[in-house]
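SEQUENCE, STRUCTURE TOKENS:
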Amino acid sequence: RKTTPGFRVVEKYGLLVGGAATHRLDLSQMVMLKDNHVWSCGSIENAVKLARKAAGFSQKIEVECQSLDEALEAAGAGADIVMLDNFTPDQLRKDAEIFKTKYPNVLVEASGGITKESMAEFLGRHIDIVSTSSMIQGYPCVDFSLKIVH
């Protein structure tokens, strides 16, 4: 969704050559639960359990979280990665530290509005991954999503 149509492989390869990791090459490489998935399942816990049942033991599950409470629920349900989305840098570091005291083996990803220029602000001892789509978007894009009304 955030790569140039027809150029996904080239753009992902460019990231690898440049020393960055790609989030996933395609939808088969990891389960990513976003707000629509959670809403349609009724809770983060239900979404993670259904995803685990469908994906099996070997597939990683990541949950997009808007708060520390959501991250704790996701980890408690068995998520492998929690994405702390659209946090301020200070809130991110504070919540990541609290989270890691309870779930030290679950990866914490910072995401949402992070650019090459602001990335350093989002680094921290308890943050395992910082993600940004700005590295592959060399042109302005419309950021849109379809939401389930609940």
Summary: Strands lie at 31-33, 61-65, 81-85, 107-111, 129-130. Helices lie at 8-17, 35-41, 44-55, 68-77, 89-102.
